[in-house]
């Protein structure tokens, strides 16, 4: 018998979990951090599925998550075509769903609210959550990340830039890397029409964090819980 969990049961255990998904560079990571601080929530940042022990993943059950253990080197990954890269990231997101749901159930078990930067697809979020617990952050233009990606000063992006520079043709590798953001297959998520609450970031020069924080706090119904 294959183990399955019904959406209504998962929804019960995730009733204190609030999800943020959407475009890259839309402010997801920043908002999760600020919301957790302002409303005393458990912070669950990007790639929280990494808490699962890598040695317990299997190449036949989680091939996309195991890719970095099987690739010949970073140049192989950086040489993926936009289509190949999209298919890989899509597979990673799907393989992470069960890990993320179980981890969130564990984090929420103590009764404290949890705010999460998630890659769980909208169709799954509709099964395990609801409108008031999900926010989709968008960018206008949606592909702004290809211009701004390396503007962020964080270890992961520094590491990636170092790997690009080590490629046989760094310029071509960077051009290919940037092209990933422009690839849009027919079955890509239509973020504008998920049915969830959305907030669009179009100003990338001014600091709009406080405005976004206020709007998300209102949407999630958290404003009356500040300081509690």
How is this structure best described in words?
By secondary structure, the protein is of the alpha/beta class. Strands 2-3-1-4-5 form a 5-stranded parallel β-sheet, with helices on both faces.
Quick tags:
228 residues; alpha/beta; 5-stranded parallel sheet; globular
Low-confidence regions: none
Radius of gyration: 18 Å
Structural class: alpha/beta
Largest sheet: 5 strands, parallel
Please render the helix and strand layout as text:
Elements: H1 7-13, E1 17-22, H2 28-38, E2 42-44, H3 67-70, H4 74-78, H5 82-108, E3 114-117, H6 122-128, E4 134-139, H7 145-148, H8 155-166, H9 170-179, E5 197-201, H10 209-219
Parallel strand pairs: 1-3, 1-4, 2-3, 4-5
Helix pairs in contact: 2-10, 8-9
Briefly say what this structure is.
Helices cover 43% and strands 11% of the residues. It is an alpha/beta fold and 228 residues long.
